[in-house]
Amino acid sequence: MTRTMVIGGGVIGLCAAIDLARRGGHVVVIDATPARTAASWGNAGHIATEQVAPLASRAAIRSAPRRHFARGGALDLPHAGIRHWLPFAWRLIAASSPRRFAEGSAALGSLLAQAMPAWQQLTSSMGAPELLCRDGHIVAWESAASAAIGRAAWAAADTGTARFAEATAAEMADLRALSPHVAAAIRFDGSGQITDLGMLADMLEAELLRLGGRIERRHATLDVVDGTALVDGHRPDLVLVSAGVRSSALMAAAGHRTPLIAERGYHIRGSASAWPADMPPVVFEDRSMIVTRYGGCVQAASFVELNDPDAPPDPRKWDRLERHVAALGLPVTGPYERWIGSRPTLPDYLPAIGRSTRVSNLIYAFGHQHLGLTLAAVTARIVGALAHGETPPVEIAPFDIARFERGRGRT
């Protein structure tokens, strides 16, 4: 029986651990965030199959000034975090050439095409198909002018397996009941939502335990001796690094360069007593905000803050989310619960998934940026294949961490 230690108890680590345990391995997950403060459990719940285009692009760079937090946008580059985001920004620019963007889109597209089927299979196999809602999502605008720009951008974008159409009259009526400021909207099909992140975490952990796995709530150390990874002095047959923004230090111990940054997001949660139970996630694109209902609460989320993961939160961002909710007239009531979490992001906005060429028993899966929840189930399939010497379900060469190492001519 293969003995595997998974460092990281977020959604990717747990999904991969389940796949490995189902293949007959003895799996131990080491989770340093028992309070579930990681991005896995505070995101928008959106299965974003439409987000094929990497954010490392010339278009994103050109639009950055108008998207800055100081100008009312969602992008923030705090002065105190310049030593983190300035090197990342240079690498992002290098990764944003038309050729690299096209390669990245093709690579992401191959993963996203399998994201929804992988989630369907996983939730059904756990006896919890209700965790996955496949009713798409809505993108709304507050003016005819912004709607025209937004529609044109989506029409020109590669949305993979997702498609969109104008919101119907009935859908517009429902949206305007939420906010009288909605001027236009489109409805996506082919995307979806995890209906309850807390329940998802509970179900994944319970499934792993049912399969004979174990979860240890603590920090882990990784060392390499004679080309083999040791975790806290133990020598397992296999080690999976899937520790989100904390993966960089672990990979450095294995001799790999991993220019991760914490892309911090914020959300507020309030009462859902007046929010329709069947409303899919709604993106208010003019405000770069996505609003999602989870059971008895409604969550509004936004912001891309490139910073030290351990920097204090910026209360202005929670305040702005509350102002957005009030300005739109959304039926969400406080008192609000506030959250901040760090998305693990690499400069080319592609994840790192593969087997180490330096350490014989090391596999890695991290750096999924905004798509960690979306890609968790398909990433688990890839990890399972790698662990057993099988051909992965998608071509994984673009996700090799060696693309960031010296002498490769990449970022």
Describe the protein in words:
With 411 residues, the chain is an alpha/beta fold. The protein is 32% helix and 25% strand. It contains eleven helices and 20 strands. The strands form four sheets. Strands 4, 6, 7, 8, 14, 15, 16, 17 and 18 form a nine-stranded mixed sheet that branches. The chain has a six-stranded mixed sheet with strand order 10-2-1-13-20-19, with helices on both faces. Strands 3-9-5 form a three-stranded antiparallel sheet, with helices on one face. The two termini are 39 Å apart. The mean pLDDT is 96.
Low-confidence stretches: none
- Based on helices, strands and strand pairing, what is the structural class? alpha/beta
Strand content: 25-35%
Overall number of strands: 20
Our count of helices gives 11
Shape: globular
Mind summarizing the main beta sheet? 9 strands, mixed
- Estimate the helix proportion, in percent: 25-40%
Give the rounded overall mean pLDDT: 96
Distance between the termini: 39 Å
Brief write-up:
This protein is an alpha/beta fold and 411 residues long. 32% of the residues lie in helices and 25% in strands. It is built from eleven helices and 20 strands.
Question: Topology of this structure?
Answer:
Elements: E1 3-7, H1 11-22, E2 26-31, E3 46-47, H2 58-63, E4 75-76, H3 82-94, H4 98-112, H5 115-125, E5 132-133, E6 137-141, H6 144-156, E7 163-166, H7 169-178, E8 184-189, E9 192-194, H8 197-210, E10 214-217, E11 222-225, E12 228-231, E13 238-241, H9 247-253, E14 261-271, E15 282-284, E16 289-294, E17 297-307, H10 315-328, E18 333-345, E19 352-355, E20 362-366, H11 372-387
Parallel strand pairs: 1-2, 1-13, 2-10, 4-17, 6-15, 13-20
Antiparallel strand pairs: 3-9, 5-9, 6-8, 7-8, 11-12, 14-17, 14-18, 15-16, 16-17, 19-20
Helix pairs in contact: 1-8, 1-11, 5-11
